[in-house]
Specification:
Keywords: Leucine-rich repeat, Repeat
CATH topology: Leucine-rich repeat, LRR (right-handed beta-alpha superhelix)
Strand content: 5-15%
Strand order of the largest sheet: 1-2-3-4-5-6
Organism: Rhamnusium bicolor
CATH architecture: Alpha-Beta Horseshoe
Oligomer: single chain
InterPro entries: Leu-rich_rpt_typical-subtyp (IPR003591), LRR_dom_sf (IPR032675), LRR_domain-containing (IPR050216), LRR_R13L4/SHOC2-like (IPR055414)
GO cellular component, one term: cytoplasm
Protein name: Disease resistance R13L4/SHOC-2-like LRR domain-containing protein
Mean pLDDT: 78
Number of helices: 1
Length: 155
C-alpha cells in the first residue's frame, strides 16, 4: 500500500482524512446504520491486522454507497465472504482483506479498475477469480498463507 496516492483532483481539506474504526469492536448494525455518515470519506479502516479488527463477520452490502472510497481495510476481522457490491467502488485503489476467513472473492472485483493494492494473505482462499488479470493498475497482491491459491498468474 506504499503506492497509494490520492487523485490529483483531490482539492478538499478532507482528502487525506482517515476514518479508523480498528479496535472499536463495532456491531454490524452500528456500521450498517451509520454508513451514510461516511459517504464523502476516502479512507476507512475497519481493521488492519490480527487482533485489531472489529470481529466483523460481514461487510455491508451497502458498501457501494461509499462511492469516493479509495482505501478500505477489513483486515483482522472474521469475514467469510465479500459482497459483490464491493465491485461498485470505482475509485478504490487499496483493498485490505487479510487475516479473515475468506474462501472466495466475487468475480466483479475485476470492476475495480483503479485498484493498485490487494492484500489477501492469511485467509482460506483456494482460488482467485481469473477476472483479476484484467486489473491493469494492480501492482501489489499479497496472497500468502492461504489454502493453496491456484493457477492465476498474478503481478
Amino acid at each position: 500500500m506504499d503506492n497509494y496516492t490520492s487523485d490529483s483532483s483531490d482539492s478538499d481539506a478532507n482528502s487525506n482524512k482517515v476514518i479508523d474504526f480498528a479496535y472499536l469492536l463495532l456491531e454490524p448494525e452500528t456500521v450498517e446504520n451509520n454508513l451514510e455518515a461516511y459517504i464523502d470519506d476516502k479512507k476507512i479502516i475497519f481493521g488492519c491486522r490480527k487482533n485489531c479488527g472489529n470481529g466483523l463477520k460481514q461487510i455491508s452490502k451497502n458498501i457501494w454507497k461509499l462511492k469516493n472510497l479509495q482505501l478500505v481495510s477489513f483486515g483482522g476481522n472474521e469475514l467469510y465472504e465479500v459482497p459483490a457490491s464491493l465491485g461498485q467502488l470505482q475509485h478504490l485503489q487499496a483493498l485490505v482483506l487479510c487475516d479473515n476467513k475468506l474462501e472466495s472473492l466475487p468475480a466483479n472485483i475485476a470492476n475495480l479498475h483503479k485498484l493498485k493494492s490487494l492484500l489477501l494473505h492469511k485467509n482460506k482462499l483456494r482460488t482467485l477469480p481469473p477476472e483479476i488479470i484484467a486489473l491493469k493498475n494492480l501492482t501489489e497482491v499479497s496472497k500468502s498463507s492461504n489454502i493453496c491459491i491456484s493457477a492465476v498468474n498474478m503481478v
